[in-house]
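# nightly structure sweep
# worker-07 picked up a monomer target from the shared queue
# config: single-sequence mode, recycle default, output format = structure tokens
# input follows
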Amino acid sequence: MTQRLLLIIVLFCFGCKKETPPDEQSQQKIILSFDFRVDGEKLQTDTMIYINEAGNHYLVNEIQFFISDVTLHHTDGSTYLIQEWKDIHYIDSDLPETQTWNVFDNIPAGSYQSISFTFGINEEKNQSLMFLNPPESFMFWPQYLGGGYHYMKLNGKWLDENQQISPFNFHLGIGQIYYSYPDSITGFVQNYFQITLPNSSFTMEKNQTKEILLIMNIENWFRSPNTYDHDKWGGNIMQKQDAMRLACENGQDVFTTVVKK
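# output follows
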């Protein structure tokens, strides 16, 4: 065997070195789960047992909302944006299957100081007709009001100032600027906002699955920093930017977090 042929055989053997199979690589996963509570107790729907900060007696029928751009903030200052396959998640109080999000991404191991996300969908992504099937498609926001999709529907009823039970649609989405209300729209307001979850630090070990519970505390939509009065704003706020602005400000502290071991 010539030296040249021997060299070719050696190079071929090195070139065919077996790679580590994917199933032998480390896999770190996050499960985001969601719950709804009022004053620390699990939400009871369709029951007039709640009183908000303004003194309105109210009940909740259903809640649907989107979160997107979920970002993990590493202790070294770097960030990891959850985006592989799906970066917008729909949650529905009537659909238990939406209340658990098995995030597809393989999360890098390490220590994280917080989790943040967009409540709703940002302007670039919030495009009409991107959801063709229910339940997400039912969240459409009327085109003449800005298009795209609701950030949230919180539907219920309250005992109004005339002691009548009246429905309310506490809906968040794109707001409008009017020359003459309710017609003559001259501009739109992007009402999505960023939330950094409190007490959301965690450490991800190799080959670990970490479950993180996000609790929506419904009473906070109506009390902090603004006292929201259903008697003042009425049953529908989709065309009332001042009311939606108050709601978005209140949304900053709606969520609490439980990191499960």
